[in-house]
């Protein structure tokens, strides 16, 4: 089990904004022709559900009215990003039914890690589609769709295929790494996990480099969130020792490791800018957005930060969202709460639609990005050559 609308509309006359020694050309939503997404369940729009078991109700109840492969009651951050860029929601690459890939594809799968793991999906929720496999899926997707597009004799034959020219103009989004830490907490000491972080980060960089060699140029990279604040972790903590939890009730040691992972990830992104001279790499501080919401929940219109909307967790026994179980001879159903819009955590691991929207609005305007540019301009700035 594993523990992505602020929109200013106007007519912009050609102008140039200087950001960190780089040129940023004016851009509007709609200028980015496609999104290609890589990640885990935080941005999976149905990949793991298509590969294995479909999501069960009440997932999807708030927006879609039915389960649609998302680990939430509605839309994810990636859905709000697509809306903001005036693009359709991303179809999962692994789904063969009703998919449309003309303006992008989603290679993310729930449980995915950057590094390959020995654990299995069926036992521990670790995806068999880690980042390197997702990149291979992209390579195959690009090669096959480009071939079919170029072989098509009628425009209708290309209706669901991406234009090969758009691959270099698309934005490539990453939201992955949380599960590498989650697996580490289960299988390693903190010291061992700390020692593994450089290799995890380097494997991430290798994926970006492979995409760059295939023509990708604009990268929007989310760091990992405050894993120590996930309610599934905190719900069964009783009488913690002093210092185990931080001032907001999160597991401090886990968040410290997430912060270190993010520090090294940001440093590696900086190195990639030098190694990939034609790339535009935007590092996005998703940690600060999520922690800011959790630490200030009530002032942002939410209930207590660690409340879980869907599922039942009691005395170390978990009945997950949409499942049935037995607690002390009593049948319990993992149903949803009365008002998911007031709850941050959907199921103890994943965020509710309302929380995802709040987070998306914090990151899309560029205020938490390095360089500090909005996502609408993320594919427009280039280094001086």
TrEMBL record:
Annotated GO MF terms: hydrolase activity, acting on ester bonds
InterPro entries for the chain: GDSL, SGNH_hydro_sf, SGNH_plant_lipase-like
Claim: Hydrolase is one of the keywords in the record: yes
Signal peptide span: 1-21
A Pfam family the protein falls into: Lipase_GDSL
Keywords tagged on the record: Glycoprotein, Hydrolase, Signal
Family to which this protein belongs: Belongs to the 'GDSL' lipolytic enzyme family.
Name of the protein in question: Uncharacterized protein
Organism: Nyssa sinensis
Organism lineage: Eukaryota, Viridiplantae, Streptophyta, Embryophyta, Tracheophyta
């Amino acid at each position: 089990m594993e523990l992505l609308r602020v929109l200013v509309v106007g007519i912009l006359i050609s102008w140039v904004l200087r950001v960190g020694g780089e040129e940023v050309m004016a851009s509007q939503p709609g200028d980015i022709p496609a999104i290609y997404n890589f990640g885990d369940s935080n941005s999976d729009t149905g990949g793991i559900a298509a590969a294995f078991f479909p999501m069960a109700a009440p997932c999807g109840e708030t927006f879609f009215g039915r389960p649609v492969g998302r680990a939430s009651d509605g839309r994810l951050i990636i859905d709000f990003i697509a809306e903001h860029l005036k693009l359709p929601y991303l179809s999962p690459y692994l789904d063969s039914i009703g998919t449309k890939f003309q303006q992008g594809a989603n290679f993310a799968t729930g449980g995915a890690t950057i590094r390959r793991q020995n654990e299995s999906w069926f036992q521990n929720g670790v995806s068999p589609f880690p980042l390197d496999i997702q990149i291979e899926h992209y390579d195959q997707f690009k090669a096959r769709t480009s071939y079919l597009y170029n072989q098509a004799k009628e425009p209708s034959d290309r209706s669901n295929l991406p234009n090969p020219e758009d691959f270099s103009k698309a934005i490539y989004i990453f939201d992955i790494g949380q599960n590498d830490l989650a697996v580490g907490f289960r299988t390693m000491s903190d010291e061992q996990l700390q020692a593994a972080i450089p290799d995890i980060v380097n494997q991430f960089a290798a994926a970006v480099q492979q995409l760059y060699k295939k023509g990708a140029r604009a990268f929007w990279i989310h760091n990992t969130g405050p894993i120590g604040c996930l309610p599934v972790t905190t719900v069964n903590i009783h009488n913690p020792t002093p210092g185990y939890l931080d001032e907001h009730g999160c597991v401090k040691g886990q968040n410290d490791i997430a912060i270190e992972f993010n520090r090294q990830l940001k440093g590696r992104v900086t190195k990639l800018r030098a190694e990939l001279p034609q790339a535009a790499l935007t590092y996005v501080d998703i940690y600060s957005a999520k922690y800011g919401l959790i630490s200030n929940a009530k002032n942002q219109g939410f209930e207590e930060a660690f409340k879980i909307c869907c599922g039942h967790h009691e005395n170390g026994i978990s009945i997950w969202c949409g499942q049935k179980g037995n607690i002390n001879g009593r049948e319990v159903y993992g149903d949803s709460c009365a008002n998911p819009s007031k709850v941050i955590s959907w199921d103890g691991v994943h965020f509710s639609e309302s929380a995802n929207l709040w987070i998306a609005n914090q990151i899309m305007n560029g205020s938490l990005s390095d360089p500090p540019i909005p996502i609408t301009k993320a594919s427009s700035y280039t280094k001086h050559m």
